[in-house]
Design brief:
Shape: globular
CATH superfamily of the largest domain: Alkaline Phosphatase, subunit A
CATH topology of the largest domain: Alkaline Phosphatase, subunit A
Strand content: 15-25%
Number of helices: 11
Number of strands: 14
Strand order of the largest sheet: 8-9-1-10-13-2-14
Radius of gyration: 21 Å
Order of helices and strands: EHHEHHEEHEEHEEHHEHHEEEEEH
């Protein structure tokens, strides 16, 4: 039996008044996923272990069947995924552009919003063109900027999406605070850069535990870095952007091609999480509908006699609230069934409410599911 895993970043959500009290997944038309649920098993999975902060650097390894490493920061993984050279004695942090209500570091200054990455890229790139001593800033068009600093890691700081509407001081004390205050003075308007996701133990080491997956199709640096750290292939896919404009059908074709080489293949899709961070539940629902139509639809057209043994598992690496913009650390829905079920057959609803009373699979039970163990009868239709 071969396995194709689809990880929908930020899948689970809160009930949203603008969607009639439904979650985006509940509001999205997903006939193919419902067909898969009708032919397979559904339930809940806990990708975020107790005591760890919800994020892809934690949830994606859990989805891939390996325990997340609490000692490696997100930014170090993104640098690995981007192919940046980070010296052993340096640390790397994410530098996210935010809008503030006052000066950086001033008492009472509040994070008004996370800035649009594409709209602020030029201003941040200008900072990187004039680096200060002991600092290299790598601006990215999608807003996922990285900053490499000489010296050991500083205190852990909160992600900016967890600080929207709150005083910046609640995010913690960043390493080299004067540097970030200077950046804010040089940026236009109310823009500032907030550092977070720093490594807690230097550069990421190779993982000691093996994942069953041989390939991960992704266009997101942190997931690419996680895969490379685990020795997993990350095929390049033309048109895959990591954003809402990503070519979902191309990602599906790449995954089906990878099944010729590997028994376990994963596909990571990011944009539902981005829509939730932007407090746009309608956009999140629309993207999930497009995933069902374009990605799941392409998979439905793919199976032939040579793929009759493939099962599809769909889940999320964590939830993201479209109400608050913050990550959620609770369980997420999952569905597992034969890939051939996508073509036709009766369906049943698959969303948070539909699995609300199902048992929750922990990391060990999830790894068992990936390895082919039977899901308990009470999780599915019996």
């Amino acid at each position: 039996m071969r396995t194709l895993l689809l990880i929908l970043d930020g899948l689970a959500d809160d009930r949203v008044p603008a969607l009639g009290g439904r979650t985006p997944l509940e509001a999205a038309p997903t006939p193919r996923l419902n067909r898969l649920a009708g032919a397979g098993v559904t339930g809940r999975f806990a990708p975020i272990p107790s005591g760890m902060r919800a994020g892809s650097e934690v949830g994606v390894p859990s989805c891939l069947g390996i325990a997340p490493d609490p000692h490696v920061g997100r930014a170090a993984l993104e640098a690995l995924g981007r192919g940046l050279d980070v010296p052993p004695a340096a640390t790397v942090v994410r530098a996210t552009a935010v809008h503030l209500t006052g000066p950086f570091g001033a008492p009472g200054t509040v994070v008004r919003a996370v800035a649009d990455g594409s709209a602020t890229h030029a201003a941040v790139a200008a900072l990187g063109a004039a680096p200060e001593e002991g600092m290299r800033l790598f601006a990215a068009p999608d807003g996922r900027h990285l900053c490499v600093l000489d010296g050991p890691p500083g205190p852990e700081t909160a992600p900016p999406h967890d600080l929207v509407g709150l005083p910046l001081a609640l995010g913690g004390a960043p390493v080299r605070p004067g540097l970030w205050a200077d950046f804010a003075r040089r940026l236009p308007g109310d823009l500032a850069l907030w550092p977070w996701g720093g490594s807690k133990s230097g550069a990421p080491r190779a993982m000691s535990a093996a994942s069953p997956f041989g390939a991960v199709v992704t266009a997101v640096d942190v997931v690419r870095g996680l895969a490379r750290r685990a020795g997993i292939e990350t095929p390049e896919v033309s048109g895959a952007t990591g954003g809402p404009d990503t070519d979902l059908a191309a990602k599906a074709r790449a995954a089906l091609n990878a099944l010729d080489r590997h028994a376990h293949v994963a596909v990571h899709v990011e944009a539902a999480d981005m829509a939730a961070h932007a407090l746009d539940p309608a956009a999140k629902a629309a993207f999930l509908a497009r995933v069902d139509r374009d990605l799941i639809g392409a998979l439905a057209e793919g199976p032939g006699p040579g793929l009759a043994d493939v099962r599809l598992i769909v889940t999320g690496d964590h939830g993201t609230s479209s109400v608050t913009g913050r990550h959620l650390d609770g369980p997420v829905p999952f569905v597992a069934g034969p890939l051939a079920a996508l073509k036709a057959g009766p369906g049943r609803p698959w969303h948070e409410a539909a699995v609300a009373h199902s048992p929750i699979l922990d990391g060990a039970a999830w790894r068992g599911l990936l390895d082919g163990a039977a899901v308990p009868c009470r999780v599915s239709r019996c």
